[in-house]
Amino acid sequence: MSTGKKIILFILDLLLLTLVIPAAWDYYQTMDYQWMVNDSSQLPYVGQYLPTYLFWGFTALSLLLILGLLIILFYPRTYLEINLSDEGGTLNLKRSAIEGLVREKVIENDYLKSPNIIVTLHKHKVEVEVKGEIIPRVEVAQKAQLLEQEIVEALKNFFGLEQQVKIDVAVNNIHKKTSSKSLRVV
After folding, report:
1. Between these two residues, 94 and 112, which has the higher pLDDT value?
2. Number of CB atoms found within 10 A of residue 132's CB
């Protein structure tokens, strides 16, 4: 998650918390477990249960907002490019370059048809997700492991990538060959 998105979500979460926590406190004061009569408690059938419902509802929403705040704060940052430094200089490696290399390896292997490749860059890790239609073969698991090894080796050899590479190969469905024979009616 980018820093700007984190800041916006953090501010929105804090604003919601400033609305919800005082409301929960007010309903805690009206509950006081003596069932004080309030304007909202004069509603027929639900009036006596409304302060309890609102108190526990606001309390649960406050806890969810606090949990969301923690998730926003500690969600890992994603990058658009990685800076690879060496004694010879620096190289800015973009996501599209990694996607192109992975696409070439997948096409070279002739393992998946119409692959969809998603690359996520983190500070110390590169996640590659490959989805596509598999060509029917006997050794699907072995071909997937071979493809993963080739991609990792290509990223390390071609780009000199030192980050940990996590590859996820998902198969959408089986690619069916279209038959060139057409049936004729006599």
Report:
1. 94
2. 19
Residue 119 to residues 125, 134, 140: CA-CA distances in angstroms?
11, 20, 23
The residue segments making up the domain with residue 61 are 3-74
Predicted confidence (pLDDT) per residue in 60-88, tens digit? 888 988 898 888 888 887 777 777 777 77
Question: b/e per residue, 100-110, with b = 16+ CB within 10 A?
Answer: ebbeebbeebe
d(CA 87, CA 15): 48
Give pLDDT, residue 67. 92
- 70 inside domain: yes
Phi, psi of 158 (to 5 degrees): -75, -45
Q: Does residue 61 form part of some domain?
A: yes
Q: Is the same domain home to 68 and 113?
A: no
Give CA–CA dist 23/65, Å, rounded: 14
If we measure between CA atoms, which residue out of 17, 16, 38 comes closest to residue 27? Answer: 38
Give the separation between CA 20 and CA 166, rounded to whole angstroms: 40
- Residue 91: Cβ-neighbour burial (10 angstroms; 0-12, 13-18, 19+): middle
pLDDT in tens, 152-161: 888 888 777 7
Residue type at 106 in one-letter notation: V
Last residue within a domain, chosen from 44, 74, 104? 74
Structure tokens at 92: 């800015």
